[in-house]
């Protein structure tokens, strides 16, 4: 089925099940510990051996020799997989760093060996007995001095002249640190071979990417590979791609002729897998006296291993605010650090951390309230191509509604004092595109009237099980308890997968398509025209005939499969995007500089909301991640040895319960017919976009101290705090 | 005694009401004894270093990070895991409240959160103070106490506000 024009009204608009606050259908399994995650599949293969990895102790160079003898002789050890056993494995299109093989070390904690033993304890102990001799070479670990390449971004008008002539200007440089996804479930896989056939039970957001990457990396026939990942303990981009756990498990299982399971130890994850690159961003804004932006420029520098794309923090600035003269520079430094790659809202999350402080500073320079400043610089068209409109854009409503609900009333900086606390408010805008990907599904109407949905879509905590179930229920006129949703198996039709906040929009489109096909098939079977058949309350009505779905499927299940493909009109005619405003209130300890959040509000313009419970959870979760980005998250680079030093959850701090205040979320619930058949858009990444800047701006409002170097830790404000008695 | 015999021990503990005798490697944590030997995989391994709380279980009625405790230290102990609290057909009130308030997303930290949440209510009622307790003689149930005491259980999906709502509901229901 092709989505080649904006959606008209159809069965999905009934909103009997969709749009309703249904609790997660897999909830009972999760809260009782019965949902099986990758490393826990004791049932899938007998006699599973355990693999424990060894990572390179240098960041760049070669392995001269590896002494495996002591490890091989250790109790319980069955075999050892060594990177020297093979050439560097081919790199799949979705990967940057090779995952295994060869003597070349490209980054710290690159996987170089896997000890395969009877038990975890035996494998772990033996891995420490491997002696590695390296020939270390000089690596490029400093972004400021590394060679760079510039990505091509169109410039509009004449920024330099317009900025030079602007009546009011703002010109500052901001830095964001490297961040780690730090999802709670480590990357893990169990692999088993049956002849040439490989099955990998793993934890992966993109089943088809994982399958294709296994095919490339291990030179396999696609027919012979199955990937299964029904439950995923968080991803945030870290599990978009095939990682070393799956590759090593597959290689090891082949080597020993037995199933092998591998979980990456937590301290291994930060340098072995991917992270969000640090950035340096210069933002210049030139305005007329009335605050209208005339010229805007965003320059970005980020780092990557050779072949990667880095973190393009300029992207949202191309679309978010008006201004005739626009200049962009995205500079990518080639480095020898672990692989930088996508983390939740790649580009925008970092870009808005900077842009939305810059907007606060520009508003202040123009002497205009920052909410008002954003409103007067709104645009309803793509500033690079005014022919293209936003399919919908309710950003002004986000700001106005948010200001009213929040009680937006900031004082002048450092003017509100409550005992030992300096109190301030901050605001920021959020912007994130709402892309889509082709997505397929199969639906199977059972003789008892239940419907089974099968798609390789994943649920990484986003609510896919539930919203896909709601979609099928709505389309066939069934209640949600009649739907069984099966996900994450490459044996099912290929879906969009979970990434780039395209998951829900795209995969509900796929289930919609399969359900339309099923409606067609049922109509044909009963000799009626599909357009005239009504599916409601488990009943099918055609003219004056009414039957139950179970009667229709009585003899044999009815199976339908289709996929949704999204036409070019969506991109050519429109910019389809999501918008938010974020408001926060902070209290800063006047003596210590400690920042405490008091309350947070997000107002989201993200299309039709498929399920207000799971959508809200996405947003409060993203707001929480934004608190981390604002106040604590920072992968500390050892720039001499080329690795991230705080590589565990004690050193890399993420928000805990005590950091998070009352959080409120308002959805404008704006059905966008240009976006998808369900008129939905993404929301999971939008919730993160702008949060950190709102907090940084609130800290400025509370203290009068502007921090442009994330995270906003107390050492960056304490020496400039107003005198405690001054208030 | 040979090295082989010294490296293994026999330990008997009661897990979710059932006595279990294990002959295990001394290095096996309580967490891995549950997950790998008893196949009770509801208890999660998030970090294996006592930094995340996903492995929280109750030992003799008190919550512990099971990854920081060796199985052989638990001779005679009563261990309760998330599986022992309730089943999909017969949920513990805290499990039901987590579903009701969407106190989770990916579900991986959830068993640990639930074990901690149940224990936190008991700890407050037992008058055990915390870092944020103002009056040590009068430990009260409030948001600050709940948030502080739950801070050893990381939820990267960020369900904290909903977990708090779930705990408050159970606290009120059982007050």
Q: Quick summary of this structure?
A:
The complex is a heterodimer of chains A (727) and B (175). Chain A has 727 residues and is α+β, with helices and mostly antiparallel strands. Helices cover 24% and strands 27% of the residues of chain A.
* CATH architectural arrangement of the largest domain in chain B: Orthogonal Bundle
Distance between the termini of chain B: 55 Å
Largest sheet of chain B: 5 strands, mixed
Mean pLDDT of chain B: 96
Strand order of the largest sheet of chain A: 4-6-2-13-10-11-12
- Extract low-pLDDT stretches of chain A: none
What would you give as the CATH superfamily of the largest domain in chain B? [2Fe-2S]-binding domain
Which secondary-structure class do the elements of chain B indicate? alpha+beta
- C-alpha geometry of chain B: globular
DSSP strand (E) fraction of chain A? Answer: 25-35%
Describe the structure.
The complex is a heterodimer of chains A (727) and B (175). By secondary structure, chain A is an alpha+beta fold. Chain A contains 16 helices and 33 strands. In chain A, the strands form 8 sheets. Chain A has a 7-stranded mixed β-sheet. Chain A has a 5-stranded mixed β-sheet with strand order 1-27-21-22-23, with helices on one face. Chain A has a 5-stranded mixed β-sheet with strand order 8-16-15-14-9, with helices on both faces. In chain A, helix 8 (348-366) packs parallel to helix 16 and helix 15 packs across helix 16. The radius of gyration of chain A is 27 Å and the shape is globular. Chain A starts with a strand and ends in a 24-residue tail after the last helix. The model of chain A has no long low-confidence stretch (mean pLDDT 97). Chain B is an alpha+beta fold. Chain B folds into 2 domains: 7-85, Roll (Ubiquitin-like (UB roll)); 93-173, [2Fe-2S]-binding domain (DNA polymerase, domain 1, Orthogonal Bundle). Chain B is 35% helix and 15% strand. Chain B contains 7 helices and 5 strands; from the N terminus they run H-E-E-H-E-E-E-H-H-H-H-H. In chain B, strands 2-1-5-3-4 form a 5-stranded mixed β-sheet, sandwiched between helices. In chain B, a hairpin with a 2-residue loop joins strand 3 and strand 4. In chain B, helix 4 (93-100) crosses helix 7 (160-173). The radius of gyration of chain B is 17 Å and the shape is globular. The termini of chain B are far apart. At the A-B interface, helix 1, helix 3 and helix 15 of A face helix 2, helix 3, helix 4, helix 5 and helix 6 of B.
